[in-house]
Amino acid sequence: MFLLGLLPFLAATHAQSTASTFDIELVEANFEAAQLVPELISTFTPEGVLNVTFGGTDISIGQNLTQDAVGSSPTLLVVPSSNATDVSTSNNYTVMMVDADIVGTDEGATGQTRHWLVNNAKLVQGDSGYSVGYDGAISITDYAGPGPAAGSGAHRYVILVYTQPSTFTPPANLSTAHTPLSTFSFSDYVSQTGLGNLVAGNYFLVENGVATVSVPSTTPVNTATLATASTTSGSSSPSGTSSAPSGSKTSSASSSPSSSPSGAAIKQTIGMGAISGAVGIVLAVVAAGLGL
Ligand SMILES: *[C@@H]1O[C@H](CO)[C@@H](O)[C@H](O)[C@H]1NC(C)=O
Ligand SMILES: *[C@@H]1O[C@H](CO)[C@@H](O)[C@H](O)[C@H]1NC(C)=O
Ligand SMILES: *[C@@H]1O[C@H](CO)[C@@H](O)[C@H](O)[C@H]1NC(C)=O
Ligand SMILES: *[C@@H]1O[C@H](CO)[C@@H](O)[C@H](O)[C@H]1NC(C)=O
Ligand SMILES: *[C@@H]1O[C@H](CO)[C@@H](O)[C@H](O)[C@H]1NC(C)=O
């Protein structure tokens, strides 16, 4: 009785934190500028912002981070937009972190290294948003920090939260807890398991040494353009609205044809690097387990 009386009060105090339209557009623009959309993910309409915190420090989207800074699993918080429909304490979620490799990678032709995969995660409502909780979750692949190969360029590590409907069916080889990291087809996993909407995502960069491969350049997101696009006469400035994200793609696209012929060789090198990087982590884990 006493607890029931508290419920309306709790509900009221929890209803505050929401992500603004600008926050959402910023995520969308960053995923496009980093060419994660549409190369890795064909479309992304976030229902909130995913705050990623390593060792008590929030990352900003697209940030360069050291391997040491991201060695242990982050805490995740979903701050929903006011019209979010899939952010709920009664759903299950799948949390993933994949290595999308460097900008310019043909995501359809190469696999992605799976650094983290959790099914049956939950959202736990709090004052600042919904923290991702793991009560009843199954950690298919335990968090394994990035280990990009030396000289392989700045890899993009993407953390994603999907709704996981009751019809979700994991593949046989990714249904057991503590399956070691490996490369897999991220897009096949998403489409073939029956995952639901991509609710929120974030990404960061980790580079090991100086790149010995050519990485196509990208143009940072111009937030002023975004703010203008979202608040002022959107229809009267169509070129301003669309030129920031697509402009960055045009400029990087124009630089990539020249790297296309050598692109295949680069991808192979990267692929090997990613694999040796992955092996390096496994060996490090094994070594740690043996106390070496
Ligand atoms: C990350 O570092 C690279 C150099 O390795 C630099 O070109 C890029 O601008 C940096 N990105 C951010 C978001 O700081
Ligand atoms: C929320 O509103 C935004 C902007 O109006 C729209 O793009 C988005 O599709 C809406 N999301 C949902 C889940 O309805
Ligand atoms: C979540 O991230 C957004 C964007 O980086 C930031 O504005 C907000 O303060 C963060 N919220 C919390 C609770 O950390
Ligand atoms: C959600 O996950 C729990 C385990 O934590 C499971 O018992 C339940 O069946 C799942 N619900 C759905 C709808 O998949
Ligand atoms: C799981 O098995 C499928 C074939 O059923 C294969 O294509 C895929 O590469 C395997 N995934 C992993 C992570 O081993």
From TrEMBL:
Keywords, comma-separated and alphabetical: Membrane, Signal, Transmembrane, Transmembrane helix
Keyword Nucleotide-binding attached: no
Signal peptide: 1-15
Ribosomal protein recorded as keyword: no
Residues passing through the membrane, by range: 270-290
UniProt cross-references to InterPro entries, sorted A to Z: PEBP, PEBP-like_sf, PEBP_euk
Residue span of region Disordered: 228-263
Name used for this protein in its record: Nuclear protein
Species name: Tremella mesenterica (Jelly fungus)
